[in-house]
Specification:
Blueprint lengths: L1 H16 L11 H9 L5 H18 L15 H23 L2 H17 L21 H18 L5 H21 L7 H5 L4 H17 L2 H9 L10 H7 L11 H21 L8 H15 L1 E2 L2 E2 L13 H13 L5 H9 L7 H11 L11 E4 L8 E6 L7 E7 L13 E6 L2 E4 L20 H7 L9 E2 L9 H4 L5 E6 L6 E11 L2 E10 L8 E10 L3 E9 L2 E5 L3 E3 L5 E2 L9 E8 L5 E8 L2 E8 L5 E7 L12 E10 L2 E10 L1 E3 L4 E3 L5 E9 L3 E8 L2 E8 L7 E4 L1
Antiparallel strand pairs: 1-2, 3-4, 4-5, 5-6, 6-7, 8-13, 9-10, 10-11, 11-12, 12-22, 13-21, 14-18, 15-17, 16-17, 17-20, 18-19, 19-22, 20-21, 23-24, 25-26, 26-27, 27-28
Length: about 725
């Protein structure tokens, strides 16, 4: 069947390609002509073209190397195959813009060598992935390679003889497309991945569809657009656009993986626009790709994505976002803030029509500021699987953001972190989400893959700023169960004038425990910075241990309670569910006051967490790094309050930003908190009332537990 499929693709391709004009993928002939004509008109874009030619010339100066696959991400052979597809891509475009055959010949020679060798390779020798590739350790990378290579092939197609095309298509392009869709040897389950609603499948459908477009093979195009069965009901690129984005453009796996998925989404969309304009792909589902890029921009702080789920330190400067901004600006030229994204965060333009238009319009002064706003992004195809909320200061000079995550799990890249929060201020992440435990493409660190600590710590609930019940993770750490549930934002008050406020709830993460969290962001005339009121409620008919951790970025300054610090030996916080990775550095109790305070500083500001506590409350200072023999966990510190035995319990906290610290002048001011007391004066099903004594004022914050919209605060 596999041989028949490849033969059929080859035959169908030969019939259809006679009607096709090349190039027809990332660029078409009209766009190539435009780019040739505008040379010398926009200096920034001239630099882009000059760099393209320089990169292509560097490739020509090196001998062609197609080594036998053997290593993982970051390994020398892995990186060589990545270098090869970039080199072919650069040379293909260089040929289109210069007409110099030397670039086309380089691509031809490289493709012929791959076509000679690829059929001789079985599955990759590394077994880190359940879906091994042949060229790479995982099939995902195979798709990325084929996508870039199909664009290079498209650019030099007209220079090839029929014999060369037949050889390359049969042995390499159709062979690899078949592998991506169906598998090879004992691995015959790739079709399951190909038809999934997942970023790996987006790459796969894009690669296969682009191969179909450039070879003129409609069977491959149909499979890419509508899934293996061609119905669009079980898989395919269009169904992915339906399923993977919410109506707001939020992506199921979170912003970090939306960053990765947007790359094949926009590239394949550009190819579809060139080849199937009847689909009106950029108008599809109410311009969902435009909504997606806007969501990605809004889900950043200082240009870096919020660290939801499996996230690393990436943002608007990534190459994926460069592609997205360049292609989507061409599709939506009214989006002038994209000019600012390109100018402020990205290092250059792509050598395609969108890159030229970006460079031209920036030079013409058309850029508009990015309008960062408070926003609630719904999750789920129909917007009914929870949401993530972002509260930003209305005073742009304050540069702060507060997030509340009450979404679906996020598939395999999701974390067990229902109702988690994070706080960003003064250019830094202050109360942190750990993100992922991974060293991307550093081969010495588990071949660049997610380390085992990603599961044993980073995904666990204790790694996040949210409630942990009985030392366990949400859904007992079972991803299949987690994927069946979601939290909800039950009140969206981000547009209130008196305060911005969000309330979220979850009843499934811990059996028999209902969690509710209220975050209120309040600007007061007598406070230097906005105050954050955090009310985290747990309700149960049974007694539980409740932990309330705050992972902070900074250096501890002081507490208002006595504590004992471990000076020579330390114990772990627990034995499982992430607790085994956490050292307890200090332990304290506060039996003399009804409020416990922890102050730290980061950069030029101080931050105090003031929480209503009682005589049973236990405070711990924590440090990450236990049971980590390979140093895979990044340094992190936390302050945690434990309520050891309670059925119902409410953590009521004031998070205060204050003071100034100048390391150059060696001065500090207002380093002590102005909060003198936090006390819960009522807590029942109707309302939770918290008294906050701040400076010489008393703030009474009332959370209406039945109708959160009626929540308010009063100042006496």
């Amino acid at each position: 069947m596999r041989k028949f499929f490849i033969a059929f693709c080859l035959m169908t391709g030969l019939i259809l390609t006679a009607k096709a004009q090349h190039p027809r993928l990332i660029v078409n002939q009209n766009e190539v002509n435009t780019i040739r004509q505008v040379k010398g008109q926009v200096a920034a874009f001239d630099k882009t073209l000059a760099k393209l030619i320089s990169d292509a010339d560097k490739a020509l100066a090196m001998p062609i190397s197609v080594p036998v696959p053997c290593d993982g991400g970051g390994g020398a052979v892995h990186e060589q195959h990545k270098t090869n597809y970039y080199a072919m891509f650069h040379c293909g475009l260089a040929y289109q813009y210069t007409g110099e055959k030397k670039y086309a010949k380089y691509v031809t020679d490289m493709l012929m060598e791959y076509a000679r060798l690829y059929p001789t390779w079985g599955l990759h020798p590394m077994t880190l992935s359940g879906l091994r590739g042949r060229l790479f350790w995982q099939t995902l990378n195979e798709s990325v390679w084929l996508m870039h290579t199909s664009m290079a092939y498209d650019c030099i197609y007209e220079t090839l003889t029929k014999k060369q095309r037949d050889f390359i298509e049969k042995n390499l392009l159709f062979n690899m497309a078949d592998f991506i869709m169906n598998g090879y040897g004992e691995q015959r389950k790739n079709h399951e991945m190909f038809n999934r609603m997942h970023n790996h499948a987006t790459w796969a459908t894009a690669a296969v569809g682009m191969t179909g477009f450039t070879t003129g093979n409609e069977e491959l195009v149909k499979a890419a657009l509508y899934g293996s069965d061609g119905t669009g009901k079980t898989g395919g690129f269009l169904r992915q656009m339906d399923e993977l984005f919410s109506p707001d453009g939020y992506y199921a796996e979170g912003a970090y993986y939306e960053r990765y998925a947007i790359w094949p989404f926009v590239i394949f969309a550009q190819c579809i626009e060139h080849n199937r304009p009847d689909l009106k792909i950029f108008e599809y589902r109410g311009r969902i790709l435009e909504k997606a890029i806007n969501a990605l921009i809004q889900l950043t702080y200082e240009g870096e994505f919020f660290h939801f789920n499996d996230a690393l330190e990436k943002g608007l400067s990534s190459q994926e976002l460069t592609y997205a901004v360049n292609i989507l600006y061409h599709a939506f030229p009214q989006q002038k803030s994209l000019l600012t994204v390109a100018e402020k965060y990205q290092s250059g333009f792509l050598p395609i029509i969108g890159g030229y238009e970006l460079a031209r319009d920036i030079a013409n002064g058309e850029a508009q500021p990015i309008d960062y706003q408070s926003h609630v992004f719904l999750d789920g195809r129909d917007g009914d699987q929870g949401a993530v909320g972002v509260i930003r200061s209305r005073d742009k000079h304050l540069n702060s953001a507060l997030t509340l995550k009450a979404t679906s799990h996020g598939m395999e890249h999701g974390h067990f972190d229902k109702l988690t929060m994070a706080y960003y201020d003064n250019g830094s992440e202050i109360l942190c989400d750990y993100g992922a435990a991974r060293f991307l493409n550093i081969e010495a660190k588990y071949s660049g893959h997610y380390t085992k600590e990603n599961k044993s710590f980073a995904k666990q609930t204790i790694a996040h700023n949210t409630l942990v019940v009985d030392g366990k993770s949400n859904y007992d750490g079972k991803i299949k169960v987690a994927n069946e549930h979601h939290a909800d934002i039950i009140y969206n008050g981000i547009n209130r004038q008196d305060m911005q406020m969000l309330v979220a709830a979850d009843k499934d993460a811990y059996p028999g425990v209902r969690m509710e969290r209220c975050l209120a962001y309040i600007t007061l005339p007598f406070a230097d910075y906005p105050l954050i009121v955090d009310i985290l409620r747990a309700r149960s008919e049974e007694v539980h241990q409740y932990d309330y951790p705050m992972w902070y970025n900074g250096h501890m300054v002081s507490t208002n309670f006595p504590y004992t610090k471990s000076l020579s030996t330390m114990e772990t916080l627990g034995k499982s569910n992430g607790y085994q990775h956490i050292w307890v550095e200090a332990f304290g109790k506060n039996q003399e006051k009804n409020m416990s305070q922890f102050t730290f500083f980061k950069g030029s500001r101080f931050y105090t967490v003031s929480t209503a506590t009682n005589v049973d409350s236990e405070m711990r200072m924590l440090r990450l790094g236990a049971n980590d023999p390979d140093f895979n966990l990044r340094p992190a510190t936390a302050y945690m309050i434990r309520q050891p035995q309670a059925a119902n319990h409410t953590f009521a906290t004031l998070i205060e930003t204050h003071g100034q610290y100048d390391v150059v002048r060696e001065t500090s001011s207002n380093l002590k908190s102005e909060c003198k007391g936090v006390r819960i004066i009522n807590d029942d099903e109707s309302s939770t009332v918290v008294e906050i004594i701040y400076k010489d004022k008393t703030i009474i914050f009332t959370l209406d537990n039945k109708e959160p919209a009626k929540s308010k605060y009063d100042i006496n």
